[in-house]
Amino acid sequence: MIRLIARPAPSRFWLWATPVLAVLATMVAGAVLFAALGTDPLEALKVIFWDPLLGANAGYFRGQLLIKAGPLMLIAAGLAVGFRAGIWNIGAEGQYIVGAICGAAVGLAVYPAESVLIFPAMVVAGALGGWAWGMIPALLKNRFGASEILVSLMLVYVAQNLLAWAAFGPLKNPAGFGFPGSRNLQQYPSAHNGELIAGSGLHWGGVAALAALVGTYVLMSRHIAGFRIQVAGDAPKAARFAGVAPARLVAFCLGLSGALAGLAGMFEVAGPSGQITDAFGAGYGFTAIIVAFLGRLNPIGILLAGLLMALTYIGGDMAQLMLRLPAAAIQVFQGMLLFFLLGFDLLTNYQVRFGGRVGA
Amino acid sequence: MSANEPPLLLRVEGLSKAYPGVLANDAVSLSVAPGQVHALLGENGAGKSTLVKMIYGLVRPDTGQMALHGASYAPADPHAARAAGVAMVFQHFSLFEALSVAENVALGMEDPPPLRQLAARIRAVSDAYGLPLDPGRIVGDLSAGERQRVEIIRCLLQDPKLLIMDEPTSVLTPQEVEILFATLRQLAAEGTAILYISHKLEEIRRLCDRATILRGGRVVGECDPREKSAHELAELMVGAELKLTDRAGRHAGEVVLVVAGLNLAPSSAFGPSLKDLGFTLRRGEVLGIGGVAGNGQEELLAALSGERPTSRGSVTLKGEDISALGPNPRRARGLLAAPEERLGHAAAPDMSLTENAILTGTMRRPLTHRGFIDRRAARAFAREIIAAFDVRTPGPHVAARALSGGNLQKFVIGREVLQAPEVLVVNQPTWGVDAAAAAAIRQALLDLAAGGAGVIVISQDLDELMEISDQFSALNEGRLSQPRSTTGLTLQEIGLSLGGAHGMKVAEAVT
User: Fold this and answer.
1) A159, A177, A336, B85 — which has fewest CB within 10 A?
2) Mutate to test the interface with B, among A241, A248, A249, A358 (most CBs of B within 10 A)
3) Residue B455: in which H helix or E strand, if any?
4) Is B10-238 CATH 2.60.40.1180?
5) Domain positions in chain A
6) Once rounded to an integer, what is the mean pLDDT over residues A323-334?
7) Chain-chain contact of B351 with A223 (C-beta, under 8 angstroms)
8) Does any CB of chain B come closer than 8 Å to the CB of residue A241?
9) C-alpha span between B45 and A313 (Å, rounded)
10) Are the beta carbons of B373 and A227 separated by less than 8 Å?
């Protein structure tokens, strides 16, 4: 018989050991999945985890790593603050898309003017767009008690339709021979979010991600406001007693995570992606949820988890290309990571005993 | 009487139970005769709960034996205990508020009969034992006393030989206590033995014919509680001399807090609303607000602490209207509060004592600099509370939930008292707290008032209110009675003002 015994206090060891264990378990289960699909499992794991870092063309892929990890970390930093307060923004993908649309729209509106003010204006527009999209669930929750989980998630689909409309309509490239999609911002110097160090993959989005991680770290572990956010998640009644106004907390958390997700979208559209197309949303907003939890809602953890998830993105692309694995297999692989993480999380709060007496 | 040596119902011999770090029960022996009302007395952590949990099959003893009706008795789980005729009413009710009485009873039974039959049986039992209860009512609409009856009737339907009751009167009005005692006496007369856990020594002296006193997991004495005074029993329990509360040195000064026309909507679907409350509090004065929890006590605390703002002009502190201010601005102005629910409201369970000191301490103590937390100052403040209020804990790094109820309560009260409030509002300051800790808390509140602060004590322990308060007022169904001076007020008068509006059959119990 397997028995679970509640720990007097959460185990600090397992708090950090479970993500590692979850990654290992995902590799094992992934290997079984790949084998069932008729691929050599060791080869698949090597392509996903090893080749992008240390394989033959690793030089190119290492740059990709920061490009993918940047938006994940930037979004996850904001989500983690809300998750600690028990406010569940599941719609970062939508805020990411709206941030990108707003940022790109500002740049495209003044095309082809050249000014150093254009890019900062796009940054502000992107953040505001994401913030506004995040404030919709916040307002509905505060006004009518609507679940922010459902509202933020459903707004993702609204954002996706907004994106398609923008790509086929107002933001369509007038010189694009009727093809959907906006002008390419990479060819518009004032709006282009280029690499800061050639070949590193680091653009302003990566810098913003690091700044966001440092900022949320200081907020959550040093400042009284972060302390109150933490209390709100642990013991809502105690938080109210400590002077936290629940409505303001909801607005702050959804606004912050929305703004950071919007920024991530803006940096992406002005940089690696370059244009608004109907396929712009790549799921960063959803993957960032996994990153936030894999990183234990802790900024340093999010940094590591962001890099790891970026690796599975790049490795997954390569596995699709070289091993002909279906795209869905890679998504299942990423999903398993969250599944195992949440499962193993039991170990932080419970001890597992095999056999033995009842009531020991 | 025990003169003719009646056959024993339950015999416990050398029962021991160790938990990591503590010996909860150390060779505990006791025996209970049929029809005996046997009190189990002891401070928090004395091992009373562990002992009854072993008897009820929730915890298995490490060593020792039990015998029921002379036969060996070792229940593997509560099912086995119930099958053997042992039933237990817990301090915290396990009832579903949205279900009816009959449905709740059915949920606790091994194989319940159809609801209509069950309802008839509930009626029969409730009539037979003088416990008025309508099986069709929704539990959420019941008073605490009526809820307890649901639990008791659930037990009585199993026809128990031994009924264990854990702190049964802590939520009852004096009249409800009378009804309960009448029922228990009737049960005892029919031969059911009752194992009765309580802190309330006067009640034990009135109800019980035998008492076993536990301290530190060991039996330290047995006596007939009717032959001892409450003070003697308390000293047996604590194992030391107890000081009587010192009320000296207080003078009613200027008015510091005025509440007028205070209305507030209920905080939950089953709570009452506050209706036109009003009172004045002077410096140096202790205002006791009596009444059973759930009659607006929580709402009143929230309205005073600032958790729920109220209409303009309803709360005035030192001449300033603070009705619209939140908890922190009120703290800054000198109005502090300690809510009833220790874990989850007054303190965050998973956070350390240092962090819990930060929770309310930043407004009046320099624990932050420009919003950044000064951990060292916070730790020092937590240590100061621990030392000044004798909080038993390894240190300020310990999580709040790891403390016993009494120790956490001392910490919570200490945290507010050490911030030198001008008005302190406390709700149920000694609920579930052992005698020594309760005495220390009451003395701290009196000392605070002697120092010139106004103190409001909301409590359902009327003995406590009579002991420390100068003015008394009853809060019942959201209405507050006119405050009266406690000198010359009798417990019976208070009891009637509390229970009268409860819509219960009071008259038949009060003789």
Assistant:
1) A177
2) A241
3) strand B454-458
4) no
5) 60-293
6) 85
7) no
8) yes
9) 55
10) yes
CB contact under 8 A, B359 and A357: no
Which residues on chain B are in Cβ contact (under 8 Å) with A238?
344-348, 359
What does pLDDT average to over chain B?
86
User: In CATH, what number does B255-502 get?
Assistant: 3.40.50.300
Inter-axis angle of helices A224-234 and A58-84, to 10 degrees? 70
Sequence ranges of the domains in chain B: 10-238, 255-502
CB distance B373–A224 less than 8 Å? yes
B503: pLDDT confidence band, cut at 50, 70 and 90? very low
3-class SS at A193? coil
A145 and B CB contact within 8 Å: no
Question: Are A203 and A274 within 8 A, CB to CB?
Answer: no
Provide the pLDDT for residue B495.
63
State the burial class of residue A56 (Cβ atoms within 10 Å of its Cβ: 0-12, 13-18, 19+). exposed
Tokens of A40: 């050599």
**Quick check: A223 contacting B, CB < 8 Å?**
yes
B395 interface with A at CB cutoff 8 Å: no
CB contact under 8 A, B359 and A231: yes
Token digits of residue B436: 């020594």
Q: Which range is least confidently modeled, A50-64, A222-236, B300-314, B458-472?
A: A50-64
Helices (H), B374-505: 375-388, 405-417, 435-450, 462-468, 491-499
Give percent above pLDDT 90 in chain A.
55
**Distance, in angstroms, between B296 CA and closest chain A CA?**
17
* pLDDT on residue B2: 43
- Interchain CB distance below 8 Å, A235 and B345: yes
| Residue pairs spanning A and B at CB distance below 8 A | 74
User: Cα–Cα distance between A161 and B346 in angstroms, integer?
Assistant: 47
Q: Residue A212 CA to chain centroid, in angstroms?
A: 13
Residue B179 sits at φ, ψ, to 5 deg, of -60, -45
Average of pLDDT values for B359-366?
A: 94
Rounded Cα distance between A271 and A239, Å, is 41
For residue B350, the chain A residues in CB contact (below 8 A) are 9-10, 234-235
Looking at the partner chain, which of B337, B371, B402 has a beta carbon nearest the beta carbon of A223? B371
**What local confidence, expressed as pLDDT, does residue A68 receive?**
92
pLDDT computed for residue A173 by the predictor: 87
| Cβ–Cβ under 8 Å, residues A253 and A117 | no
